[in-house]
Amino acid sequence: MTVPSVALRSGDSIPIVGSGTWDIGDETVRESVRVALDAGYTHIDTAEGYMNEGEIGEVLADHDRDRQELFLTSKVLPSNLAYDSVIESCDASLDRLGTDYLDLYLIHWPNPAISLRETLHAMERLHDRGKVRNVGVSNFSAFQLSCAHHVSDVPIAVNQIEFHPWFQRPKLVEYCRETGTAIEAAAPLARTEVLGDETVREVAEEYDKTPAQVVLRWAVEKDVVVLPKSTSGEHIRGNVALFDWELDSADRQRIDELDRDQPIYDTPARDWTGDVYGISQ
Hints:
Blueprint: E1 5-7, E2 13-15, E3 19-20, H1 26-39, E4 43-45, H2 53-62, E5 71-76, H3 83-97, E6 104-107, H4 116-128, E7 135-138, H5 142-151, E8 156-162, H6 170-178, E9 182-186, H7 198-207, H8 211-220, E10 225-226, H9 233-238, H10 249-256
Parallel strand pairs: 3-4, 4-5, 5-6, 6-7, 7-8, 8-9, 9-10
Antiparallel strand pairs: 1-2
Helix pairs in contact: 1-2, 2-3, 3-4, 7-8
């Protein structure tokens, strides 16, 4: 099975379905990634903050897929966005994943306490050294993304954002399209909450598909890269079985109309008291 790809500004391409690994670790993430690779996934998404890069690296080392066949993404924590910390974080991620380069390296969250220019200069250095093939951001607003485009000499390839039928963010999506920034949907299933939506379930029954497949198919038909996470082998295999069928226009419209502007995790305020941002009083 070949998963379709989305073109990046660098000329590279990113598989439109990836294996999400947020909030899973130890043998659970090992098995999840093994099943995904066996099911035809070539795109694995992780982050230093997920604390599972080592386990993923073990699976990649044992699996028979060539590194060149894979698209690996990791992210640097917002607490590590100072120049030297970005370099150190990337080197540590590469070591844990057992690879010489990342296909995509993302700023995991914007951090207003650290210069974006400084962070992106470090990203440029990693890119120039061949350690990072594409630079991107995650959870950036249109304003923050416009700043990144303005100060970066390396194209901003991706904005990984919360995106699902209940939180469609049309203005941000439009700006990403205008600037050639590929959109990745973190939590494309709204962390499973949207799967109980009555309309989603009705459409799934009509197509004899799972609610997850309907939601993911709706997103990929918009050229949005999806990163579903699951620990169930059946669900992992089902989440990539999206390319021998399509939604008709009326059903796409039904799902379009579900937008509530309702985030699951990317809420307007931030909790600055934890270690994620590294901002002390």
